[in-house]
């Protein structure tokens, strides 16, 4: 597998951040990050996974195995978002609660979609 530097650049640009900001988000030096974007150095698989997680994409996208940058999983950190973490944790523990909340979510999104269509 070969890392696709142009996809890293595309993701960074879509996030609206410069190289220095991307390096800070990834806890690496700007020079090291720049080498990944310039294709001078290929990141390890672990680093690619970390980049994918941080930039909300997949390692498959960064390796060119898929053209879909959408992640198939989401990691929720209790330290970064304690309310969402607690919410998801509660749903995992109580399947009845999960069913009720998902039904409510579906009603809300259906209502929002209907309103959007009516506005068009």
Distance from N terminus to C terminus (CA atoms, Å) equals 45 Å
- Looking at CATH, the homologous superfamily of the largest domain is lambda repressor-like DNA-binding domains
Beta-strand fraction estimate:
under 5%
| CATH fold-level label of the largest domain | 434 Repressor (Amino-terminal Domain)
CA radius of gyration is 19 Å
Query: How many helical elements?
Result: 7
Would you report the number of β strands? 0
Mean pLDDT: 93
**Largest pleated sheet:** none
Structural category is: mainly alpha
Estimated helix fraction: 55-70%
The H-and-E topology, N to C, reads as HHHHHHH
Structurally, the number of domains stands at: 2
What shape does the CA trace take?
elongated
Low-confidence stretches: none
The name of the CATH architecture of the largest domain is Orthogonal Bundle
CATH class of the largest domain: Mainly Alpha
Keywords:
120 residues; mainly alpha; HTH domain-containing protein; DNA binding; Lambda_DNA-bd_dom_sf; DNA-binding; Cro/C1-type_HTH
Topology:
Elements: H1 5-15, H2 19-25, H3 30-38, H4 45-54, H5 59-62, H6 82-93, H7 95-119
Plain-language structure description:
- This protein has helices spanning 5-15, 19-25, 30-38, 45-54, 59-62, 82-93, 95-119.
- It is mainly α and 120 residues long.
- The protein folds into two domains: 5-62, 434 Repressor (Amino-terminal Domain), CATH 1.10.260; 82-119, no CATH class.
- Helix 2 packs across helix 3 and helix 6 (82-93) packs across helix 7.
- The radius of gyration is 19 Å and the shape is elongated.
- 15% of the residues are buried.
- The mean pLDDT is 93.
- Residues 8-62 form the HTH cro/C1-type domain.
- Pfam families: HTH_3 (PF01381).
- GO terms for molecular function: DNA binding.
């Amino acid at each position: 597998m070969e890392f696709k530097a142009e996809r890293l650049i595309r993701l960074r640009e879509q996030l609206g951040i410069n190289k220095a900001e991307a390096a800070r988000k990834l806890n690496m030096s700007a020079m090291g990050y720049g080498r990944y974007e310039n294709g001078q150095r290929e990141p390890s698989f672990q680093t690619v996974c970390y980049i994918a997680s941080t930039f909300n994409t997949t390692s498959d996208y960064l390796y060119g195995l898929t053209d879909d940058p959408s992640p198939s999983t989401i990691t929720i950190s209790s330290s970064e978002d304690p309310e969402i973490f607690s919410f998801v944790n509660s749903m995992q523990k109580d399947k009845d609660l999960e069913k009720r909340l998902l039904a409510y979510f579906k009603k809300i999104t259906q209502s929002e979609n209907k309103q959007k269509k009516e506005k068009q």
